[in-house]
Amino acid sequence: MADHPKLAPRSTEDIENQMLVDKAECKISVNVVDFYHNNRMVVIETQEINETGKVIYSRFKLHLSSLELHAPVLANFLTQALESVEGTEENPVILPFTTREFTCFLDWIHDREWRPFKIMEESLVDLLRVSSTLKADDGISYAVSGLESLRLPSARMLQLVGDFHHLPEVHCWVGPAVKDLIQRPLGEITNSEAQQIAAAYPTIARTRENIQRLLTQVSQRSFALKLADKDQQEEADLCLTHKECQKAWKSVWRENIGYLLLDFQKPLTYRELLELLQNTDFPKVNPSCKARMLNWLSRKTDYPGMKELVEEAVASIEDIYHVPRRGPAPENPKV
Ligand SMILES: [Zn+2]
């Protein structure tokens, strides 16, 4: 230790006066014990080119402990970098993110009550991008559930699946987005949505056309008042005027039901059809025949062939976005 010059003894009064002066001048300080090991400080740089073509450098000085919990892969990499004298002011570690993306990631890591991370589409997408590159699992989960909670338009969700198809966490977004998009008239899909789903658009258009074709067939077939199984056949035999029932059913269907399936803007869903049949008066149909028919129809969940059309659309869009197909359900082990 360096020798300190010897101080002349001072009176208590002198010391007290000096303290008052120091206090007034804010000179009094306390000793700081350094628990914050400076050899674990790391300097990171991000580089990006702005719209005028100028390279913008941003520097982040971080303590490794702040990264260890939520970004262990990055913390590990930086620890090794520090050992080879990287991550210093003179030789910063350069990471492949924009300033905004990396700031956003740090905002999430330093999320505090008084400075909360902003749950917005842009910040969550930035967080997802950085977290997926850094294999920061907590960040991925946080961003995925945050984006799900925002209930973004289906076209945007599909676009995000395209951007992050390497993350299994986003694969489950395809099904609901495709199901929503094929229900909508193509004319309602805006130009920007069409751009977002560019690669999937032809499949969506084709599926929508196939659905129209299927509904046209259903509307013409009228779900003839026929019977599904032997038990019901026996019951129907009790109806002495069943031919009349069938004729009357067809006629009401033709006049009041069929055309609603062909509404281009909003064709009847299967659920809506069941409700409509329930509430429609079929004057010349034996009430027990109507009840039996509705009972049979309500055991199905959709128009015949609809499930297959939707599944086919989802599967081909999964292929477009390189989402691996979900394998068949595991078979029961042989006894
Ligand atoms: Zn009948």
List of distinct ligands in this structure: zinc ion
Topology pattern, helix = H, strand = E: HEEHHEHHHHHHHHHHHH
Radius of gyration: 35 Å
Count helical runs. 15
Specify the overall morphology. elongated
SS strand fraction: 5-15%
Q: Give the helix level as a range of percent.
A: 40-55%
Uncertain segments are none
What does this protein look like?
This protein is mainly alpha-helical. Helix content is 52%, strand content 6%. It is built from 15 helices and three strands. The chain has a three-stranded mixed beta sheet. Helix 8 crosses helix 15. The longest helix has 21 residues. The termini are far apart. The mean pLDDT is 84. It binds zinc ion (ZN). The site of zinc ion (ZN) has 5 residues, from helix 12. This is BTB domain-containing protein. It comes from Lentinula lateritia.
SSE arrangement:
Elements: H1 12-24, E1 41-49, E2 55-63, H2 65-68, H3 72-83, E3 93-95, H4 99-109, H5 121-134, H6 137-149, H7 154-163, H8 174-183, H9 191-196, H10 201-221, H11 230-237, H12 242-257, H13 270-279, H14 287-297, H15 306-320
Parallel strand pairs: 1-3
Antiparallel strand pairs: 1-2
Zinc ion binds near residues 239, 242 and 289.
